[in-house]
Amino acid sequence: MNSIKAPQRFDFVGSFLRPQALKDAKLARQEGRIGQDEYDRIVNEEIDKIVAKQKELGFHVITDGEFRRTFWHLDFMWGLEGVGHEATGNGVQFNGELAVLDDTYLTGKIRAKDHPFVEYFKYLKKHEDENTVAKYTIPAPAQTFQQMIVPANFENTRKYYPTNEELIEDIAAAYRDVIKQFYDAGCRNLQLDDCTWGAIVGDAAKQRYESLGIDLEEVKNQLLRVNNLALEGKPDDMTITSHICRGNYHSTFFASGAYDSVADHVFARENVDALYLEYDDGRSGGFRPLEKVSEDKKVVLGLITTKSPVLEDKEKVIERIREAEKYIPLDRLCLSPQCGFASCEIGNKLTEEEQWAKLKLVKEIADEVWK
């Protein structure tokens, strides 16, 4: 079993821009011009290429670019019992753009079953070698919990779960089962992508919850509880990390606000091995909340943006790492982009070459800072 673990000094979140061949194949499959077998063959070929590129750049953690999914989070939820979805043209309002997402809701009690993502992982794992390890990304338990209690879903969810605590218990149990499935398939590096913490920071979020008559402190406690309950009993030799951001859709964002108001919960008390944190612009605030990160966690500073093709100034990024070092030791810090390049298949507004330039810069900076 490969002993390489995430995070590495130079790392990335997980998703990559979908190549044109992949986009063309998906359209052809939808229109019935190719069958599922041909589509799967093309997807596998494109995954082979994206993994080879990651290795070429010298990265030690590999992903499949999330090429098999449409949305970073919803596709995983559809792999659970009791979850349905429908493409209606609805979505979530981001900064200046509607993120068009499938309506995703409960059709019964949430239970685990053989999850398709585990089979996807098995294909990725074949690409591991002595220098690389496969990492798989799934939405955090809190993300699934939040999806089912948003106002649009709340009344429907209450048909199956009279209380949030009952919902939390079932989500956590389903995740424990799926985590074991990943482990049994040889996965030792799992990343939980979690926008819930980023969605409750800042004055706008506070006002939004107040208008709904919801106690924000209770929300924080519930998010922490469902995440930690899902991680109970995880194998000691399995690294589980969390990525936190404020939304990433077609180079737009959902929320703004510093980490200060959630640091006592997620930084101090969430039982993950590392935190991948969005820090690519002023929307994320300063580094002082890093003082709250428990000593058993590493922090991956997301200082390189995936939302813009503009390449960062190397010296300015290094200055920011030095600033973060005032609050957490350098040996517990790593560097990455703030989020994926294509959290949803629409992708962000940059080219594949610009994407690779960003990752080259991440490695170049890390090699200089952690000599």
Description:
By secondary structure, the chain is an alpha/beta fold. The chain has one domain: Alpha-Beta Barrel (TIM Barrel), CATH 3.20.20. Helices cover 40% and strands 16% of the residues. Strands 7-8-9-10-11-12 form a 6-stranded parallel β-sheet. A two-stranded parallel ribbon has the order 1-6. Helix 12 (314-324) links the parallel strand 11 (298-304) and strand 12. Helix 5 runs antiparallel to helix 7 and helix 5 (141-149) crosses helix 10 (216-231). The radius of gyration is 19 Å and the shape is globular. It starts with 19 loop residues before the first helix and ends with a helix. 45% of the residues are buried.
Write the layout of secondary structure elements.
Elements: H1 20-30, H2 36-56, E1 61-62, H3 74-78, E2 81-86, E3 91-94, E4 97-100, E5 103-111, H4 116-125, E6 133-134, E7 136-139, H5 141-149, H6 151-157, H7 164-184, E8 189-194, H8 196-199, H9 202-211, H10 216-231, E9 239-244, H11 263-269, E10 274-278, E11 298-304, H12 314-324, E12 333-337, H13 352-369
Parallel strand pairs: 1-6, 7-8, 8-9, 9-10, 10-11, 11-12
Antiparallel strand pairs: 2-5, 3-4
Largest sheet: 6 strands, parallel
Query: Tell me, what's the shape?
Result: globular
Level-1 CATH class name: Alpha Beta
Low-confidence stretches: none
**Order of strands side by side in the largest beta sheet?**
7-8-9-10-11-12
Q: What's the number of structural domains?
A: 1
Radius of gyration: 19 Å
CATH architecture descriptor name: Alpha-Beta Barrel
Structural classification: alpha/beta
Q: What is the count of DSSP helices, taking H or I runs of 4+ residues?
A: 13
Number of strands: 12
